[in-house]
Design a protein that fits this description.
Layout (H helix, E strand, L loop, with lengths): L1 E9 L9 E8 L4 E9 L3 H21 L3 H11 L11 E9 L3 E7 L5 E4 L2 E3 L4 E4 L7 E8 L5 E5 L1 H4 L13 H15 L5 H15 L9 E9 L3 E6 L8 H9 L4 E5 L1 H11 L4 E2 L11 E4 L2 E5 L2 H13 L6 H10 L3 E6 L19 H14 L4 E6 L1
Parallel strand pairs: 12-13, 12-17, 13-16, 17-18
Antiparallel strand pairs: 1-11, 2-3, 3-4, 4-5, 5-9, 6-7, 6-10, 8-9, 10-11, 14-15, 15-16
Helix pairs in contact: 1-2, 6-7, 8-9, 8-10
């Protein structure tokens, strides 16, 4: 199974910093995933510091410990209490799971998570662990087995307490209201991605707040266990020309979405497989070359310029509707991405008329690969041919 991770957050109205913090890490060698949502006390900069410190420390502790209970208990016993409000400086939800569906979840102070199976809410048993330092502080430990199609949803109390005190929702949205929002959306879109689902939930919370102004930081995180969406990008001609047909055929027969980045590479595939390249004369955004069409290929773009701009878009998270934007969306819509990178020297890269800041293909691909793994939790494999 692939674990699709998504998170959406909005700041409390009139605040400049998020008071909640979400962090996740995927370990591609073992299939392990750790994800943590922390809610700092109050809002603004102080809450942001408390939440980010808690989540980051917890990730390191869980990573280093074989038992998530020990890591979380250490944090629970260490978090100070606000002298004025007499409550913890931050609360958290943490999950340590793998692609076989084995999961351990710990919650301390956050709303109870949702476990959805076959569009029904599951209510797993848990163990209560009381802090040795603060006797009024407890955490809940769950050990569950997840299957394909299951979802886990965490949220901060900005979600469950939304619209608190209003005529329609005097006690706030509560867990019951969140469940209704989620299940209705899943009936409408059973295969919705984690990113899209979390954005939808946060938007619904914003809608029910008076004047659509959030009274608290609002965060939703989702883990969706499903079949992976695979993709391959072929860029640059292979080092050995005699292997052109082998690599072109291997690429074309790949079981998943396919993209070509590079005119020389597109011509190679067209030549070896007797295909036609049809340029798109309508897409003309900015200074980037447009895209082309080829039977059986999902996306065909120019090479180094488009790849470099794609890396920039991935870094900022903002893209135009140009060839690089389309390549970025192609990558983000996939879970497992393979790059087949040709190692043959392309003299066009050394044209003195090209901008000096353009990196060679290998370095750009490495940068894209790192961004996809670290920022977007994708599985990436780079093969030089």
């Amino acid at each position: 199974m692939f674990i699709d991770i998504g998170c959406s957050q909005k700041k409390k109205y009139n605040q400049n910093a998020y008071g909640d913090y979400f962090i996740s890490k995927r370990y591609k060698d073992t299939g392990r995933v750790i994800a943590i949502l922390s809610d700092g006390l109050g809002s603004g900069i102080k809450a942001n510091i408390l939440a980010s410190m808690t989540a980051t420390m917890l990730l390191k502790f869980i990573e280093a410990q074989s038992d998530i209970r020990v890591a979380c208990e250490t944090i629970m016993n260490s978090l100070p209490v606000c002298k004025v409000r007499k409550i913890s400086y931050s609360t958290f939800s943490a999950i340590d799971c793998d692609e076989d569906g084995n999961a351990k979840i710990v919650e301390e102070g956050n709303p109870q998570f949702l476990w959805i199976k076959n569009n029904e809410i599951q209510e797993p048993e848990y163990k209560v662990i009381t802090s040795k330092t603060f006797t009024n502080r407890h955490m809940h430990l769950y050990k569950i087995n997840l299957e394909k199609g299951d979802r886990i949803i965490f949220c901060s109390d900005g979600v469950t307490q939304a619209a608190l005190g209003t005529k329609e929702l005097h006690l706030g949205l509560r867990r019951e209201g969140l469940i209704e929002i989620v299940l209705n959306k899943l009936k409408e879109e059973p295969d919705i991605s984690s990113d899209d689902l979390t954005r939808y939930i946060v938007k619904q919370v914003e809608i029910i707040e008076p004047d659509h102004k959030l009274k608290d930081d609002t965060s939703v995180a989702c883990l969706y266990f499903r079949d992976p969406r695979r993709a391959m990008v072929f860029t640059g001609p292979p080092y050995d020309m005699e292997q052109d047909n082998l690599y072109a055929t291997s690429f074309y027969n790949f079981n998943g979405k396919k993209a070509i980045a590079g005119g020389t590479t597109a011509n190679l595939v067209a030549r070896e497989l007797n295909l036609e390249i049809q340029p798109d004369t309508n897409l003309n955004v900015g200074k980037l070359p447009g895209i082309s069409y080829m039977k059986g290929i999902d996306l065909v773009t120019e090479g180094i310029l488009t790849l470099t701009k794609t890396a920039e878009y991935l870094e900022t998270g903002v893209a135009k509707d140009d060839a690089a934007g389309k390549l970025m969306n192609f990558l983000l819509d996939s879970d497992e991405i393979k790059f087949m990178v040709g190692a043959k020297l392309n003299q066009a890269h050394y044209n003195p008329n090209l901008p000096v800041e353009i990196e060679i293909r290998k370095n750009v691909i490495k940068k894209i690969s790192n961004l996809l793994e670290d920022k977007y939790t994708k599985k990436v494999d780079v093969r030089f041919v």
